[in-house]
Amino acid sequence: MNISIHASFLPHNDPEASLAFYRDLLGFEVRNDVGYGGMRWITVGPKGQPAVSIVLAPPAAYPGITDEERRTIAEMMAKGTYAAILLATPDLEGTFAKLQASDTEIVQEPTDQPYGVRDCAVRDPAGSLIRIQQQG
């Protein structure tokens, strides 16, 4: 069996703020930007890795979600407990410095973790936890 990860989904509640974070700050390229019913789905990904994408999606646009579930999702996003992703970079310190110089919410400065990696953590504009590891 040959299976790979093609795309992961993260929520967004402000498409322009998400573009500013993922495209302008992290340097991802926009692969798709689709509007429907007043909502937007934006696909971004790292340059040079066309097979790997993140779909930034309206969090409560899925069929069958109740109003109570929408409220719960909004509450979890506000607390930063709804979604997370792990990224990697060969220049953790430089990446962190760029994030710190912006209005990005810093969760953890670069730290040597007891499980053997050096990483930092920030929140994207929707509150998703973004951990970034030193690569290599």
UniProtKB/TrEMBL annotation:
Output the Pfam families linked to this UniProt entry. Answer: Glyoxalase
Question: In which domain of life is the source organism classified?
Answer: Bacteria
Q: Name one GO molecular function term.
A: lyase activity
Does the keyword field hold Oxidoreductase? yes
Q: Where is the VOC domain?
A: 4-135
UniProt keyword terms in alphabetical order? Dioxygenase, Lyase, Oxidoreductase
Keyword Nucleotide-binding tagged: no
Tell me the InterPro entries matching this sequence: Glyas_Bleomycin-R_OHBP_Dase, Glyas_Fos-R_dOase_dom, VOC_core
User: What SUPFAM superfamilies does the record tag this protein with?
Assistant: Glyoxalase/Bleomycin resistance protein/Dihydroxybiphenyl dioxygenase
PANTHER family, from UniProt? GLYOXALASE/BLEOMYCIN RESISTANCE PROTEIN/DIOXYGENASE (PTHR36437), GLYOXALASE_BLEOMYCIN RESISTANCE PROTEIN_DIOXYGENASE (PTHR36437:SF2)
Please identify the protein, giving its name as recorded.
Catechol 2,3-dioxygenase-like lactoylglutathione lyase family enzyme
User: Lineage in the entry?
Assistant: Bacteria, Pseudomonadati, Pseudomonadota, Betaproteobacteria, Burkholderiales
